[in-house]
């Protein structure tokens, strides 16, 4: 990638609109599932995987499952995305409520 293409890609990334929503992490080895929210769904998997690889995730049960079953037994999915970051469903309180709703529906642990 030449310098101009790199600059263009960086500029496009910075100008993109963050999409908030609800995410799901599944451990196929244990059958456990976690749901959480994110202000930007495009970056949240990387953040979770990085902290799990480093052994520093803030959810001990998720970290223990990762340690026991390994990265290959984990899957990430977007459960619900909101088009407008400024909309009512995208507020912190509303996202928290949606996480609990999804956790109850699928029998998952909230992140």
Give a verbal description of the structure.
The protein is built from 4 helices and 4 strands; from the N terminus they run αββααβαβ. The protein is an alpha+beta fold and 111 residues long. It has one domain: GIY-YIG endonuclease. The protein has a 4-stranded mixed beta sheet. It is flat.
Helices and strands in order, then pairings?
Layout: H1 3-15, E1 21-27, E2 33-38, H2 41-54, H3 60-69, E3 74-81, H4 92-106, E4 109-110
Parallel strand pairs: 2-4
Antiparallel strand pairs: 1-2, 1-3
Key terms:
111 residues; alpha+beta; GIY-YIG endonuclease; four-stranded mixed beta sheet; 47% helix; flat
Residues in helix, %: 40-55%
Contiguous runs where pLDDT drops below 50 for at least 5 residues: none
Measured distance between first and last alpha carbons: 37 Å
Largest sheet: 4 strands, mixed
CATH-derived architecture:
3-Layer(aba) Sandwich
| Backbone CA Rg | 16 Å
Q: Strand-and-helix sequence, N→C?
A: HEEHHEHE
| Order of strands across the main sheet | 3-1-2-4
Structural class of the helices, strands and pairings? alpha+beta
Number of DSSP helices?
Answer: 4
- What's the number of structural domains? 1
CATH superfamily: GIY-YIG endonuclease
Proportion of beta-strand residues: 15-25%
């Amino acid at each position: 990638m030449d310098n101009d293409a790199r600059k263009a890609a960086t500029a496009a990334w910075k100008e993109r609109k963050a999409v908030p929503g609800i995410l799901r992490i599944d451990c196929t080895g244990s059958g456990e599932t976690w749901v959480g929210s994110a202000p930007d769904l495009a970056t949240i998997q990387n953040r979770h995987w990085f902290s799990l690889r480093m052994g520093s995730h803030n959810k001990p049960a998720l970290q223990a499952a990762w340690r026991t079953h390994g990265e290959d037994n984990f899957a990430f999915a977007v459960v619900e995305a909101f088009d407008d970051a400024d909309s009512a469903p995208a507020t912190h309180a509303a996202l928290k409520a949606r996480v609990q709703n999804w956790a109850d529906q699928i029998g998952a642990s909230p992140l």
